[in-house]
């Protein structure tokens, strides 16, 4: 039986929802974030605020929430020519992938998370990747996660489980999942404190939280919130 987990935690909507799910499911939960030279480095500060607020607002989860870790992955930014690591306009590439795709990012994240989990004695890696409502990133696919789970388990001679709570749901359902896990308090926490905007905008407050409202991440979050809000009015 799996009782411990390491959540890949960026401080965004998806990873915060995954963290809440992990805290409701596992007895001991730790978190890990990555500094890879991302344009939206403000998420590194936002994630600390989210962790603090979860401990303060959800005492039933606070005792389960253990250490937080941040790993320096500057090398990823050095080898990536993408709009998440450079001052570039968001666009589609000739490959058919958006230029927000950072090649190898999730593969590297999971590999280092597994190494950390190995040392910390944690059984499950929780990540907010999604194949239903995503940007076409190949390292978010279910097949990729299954392959990584096998490779990490074999390569470290330790059976890891990669838990992907959001894999088959869209953004509207992610908002609904947050409500089911932590009620309106968790939804409000996500709106107020999590960060999604690729441009790092924490000045403009939208109905769904802070962001520029024009980058791909903001547009996706906004659409999901609009659908979720409509279901609230229909109740």
Summarize the structure.
The protein has helices at 13-25, 42-57, 59-62, 74-79, 105-120, 142-156, 171-193, 216-234, and strands at residues 4-8, 28-35, 65-72, 124-126, 161-163, 205-206, 209-210.
Architecture overview:
The structure is a single chain. Helix content is 48%, strand content 13%. By secondary structure, the protein is an alpha/beta fold. The chain has 8 helices and 7 strands. The protein is globular, with a radius of gyration of 17 Å. The strands form 2 sheets. The chain has a 5-stranded parallel sheet with strand order 3-2-1-4-5, with helices on both faces. Strands 6-7 form a two-stranded antiparallel sheet. The chain has a single domain, classed as Rossmann fold, CATH 3.40.50.620.
Comma- or semicolon-separated keywords:
Rossmann fold; 13% strand; two-stranded antiparallel sheet; 7 strands; 8 helices; globular; single chain; 235 residues; alpha/beta; five-stranded parallel sheet
CATH architecture: 3-Layer(aba) Sandwich
Q: What is the chain-wise order of helices and strands?
A: EHEHHEHHEHEHEEH
The rough form would be described as globular
What structural class do the secondary elements suggest?
alpha/beta
Question: Mean pLDDT, rounded to whole units?
Answer: 88
Side by side, the strands of the main sheet go 3-2-1-4-5
β-strand number: 7
Weakly predicted, low-confidence segments: 83-91
The CATH class, by name, is Alpha Beta
- What proportion of the residues form beta strands (DSSP E)? 5-15%
The CATH fourth-level homologous superfamily? HUPs
**Count of separate DSSP helical elements:** 8
CATH topology: Rossmann fold
The biggest beta sheet is recorded as: 5 strands, parallel
Number of discrete domains: 1
The percentage helix is 40-55%
Distance between the termini: 37 Å
How large is the radius of gyration? 17 Å
């Amino acid at each position: 039986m799996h009782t411990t987990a390491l959540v890949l935690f960026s401080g965004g909507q998806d990873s915060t929802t995954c963290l809440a799910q992990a805290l409701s499911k596992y007895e001991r939960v730790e978190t890990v974030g990555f500094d890879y030279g991302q344009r939206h480095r403000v998420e590194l500060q936002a994630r600390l605020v989210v962790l603090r607020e979860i401990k303060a607002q959800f005492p039933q989860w606070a005792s389960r929430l253990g250490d937080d870790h941040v790993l320096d992955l500057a090398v990823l930014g050095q080898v990536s020519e993408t709009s998440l690591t450079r001052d570039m306009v968001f666009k589609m590439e000739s490959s058919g992938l958006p230029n927000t795709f950072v090649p190898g990012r999730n593969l590297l994240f999971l590999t280092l998370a597994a190494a950390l989990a190995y040392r910390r004695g944690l059984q499950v890696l929780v990540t907010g990747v999604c194949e239903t409502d995503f940007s076409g990133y190949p390292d978010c696919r279910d097949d990729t996660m299954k392959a990584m789970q096998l490779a990490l388990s074999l390569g470290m001679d330790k059976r890891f489980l990669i838990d992907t709570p959001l894999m088959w749901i869209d953004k509207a359902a992610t908002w609904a999942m947050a409500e089911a896990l932590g009620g309106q308090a968790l939804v409000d926490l996500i709106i107020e404190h999590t960060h999604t905007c690729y441009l790092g905008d924490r000045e403009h407050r939208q109905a769904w939280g802070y962001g520029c409202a024009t980058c791909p991440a903001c547009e996706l979050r906004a659409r999901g919130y609009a659908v979720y809000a409509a279901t609230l009015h229909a109740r």
